[in-house]
Design goal:
four-stranded mixed sheet; 15 helices; alpha/beta; 438 residues
Length: 438
């Protein structure tokens, strides 16, 4: 099919996520047919730097030889087998490797429950926390504390603990009630827990960075303070590392930066290097043991998915973790994180249409100054970036950059230069000379 035929078929048959289809039908968006390293290529042969890691998951880039080989090798064995009543080597090996790299300290994550995406991993953690207390006889502990501007996925349980009004308010009649608190407000959280802690099953949060809210950063020490309050009031702490995990903040997991080990930790996105859907909920032994009992006691965690622990996805995830080790990805990332900050300061910060740059590791949110909602200025920036050879993604009028960890310094320079020029062109301001493309 030609590109025109593919676009026509897309408009005829598809419904895209987080997309107003009326506007989509008026645009000729790229149709991506292949990738290589940090680049994507459309059906017309145009190349684009993948500036958002295909929605924050391709940590090692596209078509990494080790990941390709791992998936191909698993295809010669079995593509899928259920984990209900059975097991398989990739799931076992991956669980061991995940627990080996998980945050450790005053407690230990010792068990892995697989699912298929970040929303389901978070749903599982919520259900585990609720059932844990139910089994223990803590009938009153039915509430969940969550943060303003939080995002934990789009299924109804995860939306119930979501704090982005644009995404979540419409569905409130379908959801369970939670207790909402302001990020960074330790005193406010303690007041809530002092008054209502006996009702709370768990607190759920994104550590250090609230991604979908526009890369909002928590103050230093906040994560550690939350952990201490959860301990004080005997509340299960759930950390959603779906976006922040696997090197995005500069360490394997964001929790490490404040020496925090949650009771439940959820991962997805970069787990398979962006190859296949897979997620995991990691639990402490205390949580796991709470579900042990005789068959007739019905302490079983009655939850599962058809593709739980899919062998192909597990093989890709094992290879992803091995690449982190073989290529010393995190050590190689440190100078690129420093360079990224310098490039943003030089090329993006001086633009008069940029209100603020927020960054932690390779997670970047560039907030534009106020523009009319109907102008869709964030979207206009992404269109200008595409024309110049980069894929970036807006969250409203915040432009998000989150390139593959494997990006080279030259590719990083080009990505930031394209972003700066795209902002300048779309918003009608003059770009610094150094940021302009040849």
């Amino acid at each position: 099919m030609t590109t025109a035929d593919l676009r026509a078929a897309d408009r005829e048959a598809l419904w895209h996520p987080f997309t107003q289809q009326q506007g989509w039908s008026a645009e000729d968006a790229p149709i991506i047919e292949r990738g290589d390293g940090c680049f994507l290529y459309d059906t017309d042969g145009n190349a684009y730097i993948d500036g958002v890691s295909s929605l924050w998951c391709t940590v090692h880039g596209h078509r990494h030889p080790a990941l390709d080989a791992a998936v191909r090798a698993q295809l010669d064995r079995v593509a899928h087998t259920t984990m209900l009543g059975l097991s398989h080597p990739p799931a076992i090996e991956l669980a061991q490797k995940l627990l080996a790299v998980a945050p450790s300290g005053d407690r230990q994550l010792t068990r892995v429950f697989y699912s298929d995406n970040g929303s389901t991993a978070n749903e599982i953690a919520l259900k585990m926390a609720f059932q844990f207390h139910k089994i223990a006889g803590n009938e009153q502990r039915t509430k969940f504390v969550y943060l303003n501007n939080s995002y934990h996925g789009d299924t109804l349980g995860s939306v119930s603990v979501g704090g982005i009004d644009l995404f979540h308010t419409l569905f409130r009649p379908l959801l369970f009630d939670g207790i909402r608190t302001a990020p960074g407000d330790v005193e406010g959280l303690e007041r809530i827990l002092a008054e209502r802690g006996h009702e709370v099953a768990a607190l759920i949060m994104e550590p250090l960075v609230q991604g979908a809210a526009g890369i909002l950063l928590h103050p230093d020490g906040y994560l550690r303070a939350v952990r201490e309050l959860c301990d004080k009031y005997d509340i299960i702490m759930i950390c959603d590392e779906v976006a922040t995990g696997f090197g995005r903040t500069g360490t394997m997991f964001a929790c490490e930066q404040e020496g925090v080990v949650p009771d439940l930790m959820n991962v997805a996105k970069g787990l398979t290097g962006g190859y296949l859907p897979l997620a995991a909920t990691l639990a402490t032994e205390r949580i796991y043991e709470g579900f042990l009992g005789r068959f007739e006691e019905f302490r079983t965690f009655f939850h599962g998915h058809t593709y739980t622990g899919n062998p192909l996805a597990c093989a890709a995830a094992i290879a992803t973790l091995q690449v982190f080790e073989d290529e010393q990805t995190l050590a190689a990332l440190a100078p690129k994180i420093e360079l990224l900050g310098e490039l943003l300061d030089e090329h993006v910060a001086p633009l008069t249409s940029v209100a603020e740059i927020r960054r932690r590791g390779t997670m970047v949110g560039i907030e534009l100054t106020d523009f009319p909602l109907a102008s869709r200025m964030g979207h206009q920036v992404t269109l200008a970036a595409r024309e110049r050879g980069a894929i970036v993604r807006p969250l409203g009028d915040t432009i998000v950059l989150m390139p593959p960890l494997s990006i080279s310094e030259d590719e990083l320079r080009r990505l930031v230069a394209i972003t700066a020029e795209a902002i300048a062109v779309a918003t009608g301001v003059e770009a610094p000379v150094a940021a302009q493309l040849a």
